[in-house]
Specification:
five-stranded mixed β-barrel, OB fold (Dihydrolipoamide Acetyltransferase, E2P), mainly beta
């Protein structure tokens, strides 16, 4: 897939808003305004062109870092995947252009910044082992089985009198 990558340099227009999705992922949204300038030789002064406003979306750890670091009015540089999203308001289809950020930083040509690395603990994983040190089969818990499925008779043949023997799991 060919993604459209874009880098924008501008000012944060509004205070970044952070929320959590149903799956527990953090997402932070804010807007950046970028106004290009050109020098007009006839008037001997700089002229501002139209302002470009871009909605920026940051996910997971970056969302938390942006929430703690970026404030309204600050100069930033944002790079990421530029895409369109359609939505409906009062039965009218509208289009929104958004930048899904890969990197966000302060524009150091216009000020200073202090960087603090964030170390987040990895989630704790517990693995139950059997007597021989092999990871135990705990699929009964995942499949919500009240009791283990019978394995049949001693000959290895299925027990034809037990309907659970043939149920699809």
């Amino acid at each position: 897939m060919n993604d459209t990558m874009m880098t924008i340099v501008g000012n944060v227009v509004d205070q970044p808003r952070t929320r959590e999705t149903k799956n527990g992922h953090k997402v932070t949204n804010f807007r950046v305004a970028s106004t290009s300038r050109r020098y007009d030789r006839e008037q001997e002064r700089y002229i501002d062109n139209a302002t470009l406003f871009v909605n920026v979306t940051c996910w997971r750890a970056m969302a938390e870092n942006v929430d703690q670091s970026v404030r309204k009015g600050q100069p930033v540089i944002v790079t990421g995947r530029y895409y369109t999203r359609e939505y409906t308001v009062n039965e009218q289809v509208r289009t929104s252009y958004e930048l899904e950020a890969n990197a966000v930083g302060h524009d150091l040509s216009r000020g200073t910044s202090k960087f603090d690395r964030v170390y987040r603990a990895a989630p704790t994983v517990t693995i139950t082992v059997d007597d021989q040190g092999i990871p135990a089969d705990e699929s009964d818990h995942w499949l919500d089985l009240a009791e283990p499925v019978p394995t049949g008779t001693d000959t290895g043949e299925p027990d034809l009198s037990d309907p659970r023997e043939f149920s699809a799991v």
